[in-house]
Write a structure and sequence with these properties.
This protein has 13 helices and seven strands. By secondary structure, it is α/β, with parallel strands linked by helices. The strands form two sheets. It has a five-stranded parallel sheet, with helices on both faces. A two-stranded antiparallel ribbon has the order 6-7. 41% of the residues are buried.
Length: 320
Amino acid sequence: MKPAIIIGGPPSSGSSLLLDLLGRHSSIAAFSETHLLAKPALWIDWANNRKLLFEDTLKSPDWFMHTGIDMISIEELKLVSFTSVNSPLEYCSQLFTRLAQSRGKTNWCEKTPANVYFFHLYPDAHAYRILTVRNPYDIIASLIFRNVPIVDAVCRTLLNLGIGHLQYLKNSVHIVKYESLVSSPKLTFRTLLDELNIAFEDSIFEDRSGKIKMDGWKNFEDGEIKSNSIGRFKELSLRQQSQVKFLSDKLSINEVHLKEYEIEVPDNEVISIPNLAKAFGYDIPSIEYSSINTNRHFFIDKYKRKFKGYPSYKPYPVKL
């Protein structure tokens, strides 16, 4: 089984740019947000749940409720007989290797934010784990500019960055910081490729004409690499900043939720946005916060999770 390059971490933390750079390499095929490796049912009981791959019912543990497999057709999923492999990683390795070969590539990488939930289950010999990191307050701001509600923006950042941090403490996880990637892209990327034992190619940074851009992004994913999104939190209105500060200070990850996925939390450690900012070397904004009523938002969210049979309904992922 060929080593896999698995990317996880918060959205708007540079993972799309990193995947684009990797996919430009002559030997690497990049697969974006298939969600194939982020399904608890497959990791918990591969033998009995693998048939669900074709039923579009598999759920992911991310804050936003996601069901099914994206970006891969049923015909492609059938390229590998799931009865001949013993784990999701083995199945994905064979599948993505075949898809990579069809593109004339020899290596592959896959990026889905919720991959961080399962980093501890990847054998070191078969998976190279990458966690993309960014100032959490800038991540939240970027999501808000993408029209994500403030509560959801904070919760998704908290879960993906917090779980990534816990995985980094216990496992061999390589961190790629957004700020380094956009400020010194060639040096940061060359360092990463050196760790992967893959030769650097200057052509990766050529012909970045820019065609892919999500609403709320300042720059094109495949365009000129700029650092003008560093400090995005300060571009929010003062009211938005104060609400983000309130939620960031009040919310933390529910440790019982993490136990469902066998993710260890050090004794007496609270996984909150301010603590994560300190852990990764970012400043905490000095601003007075204004309260925001989360009760109604969480009530509706819990109802949606229960109605959809979402695996994170109980225990709830975050707590006040």
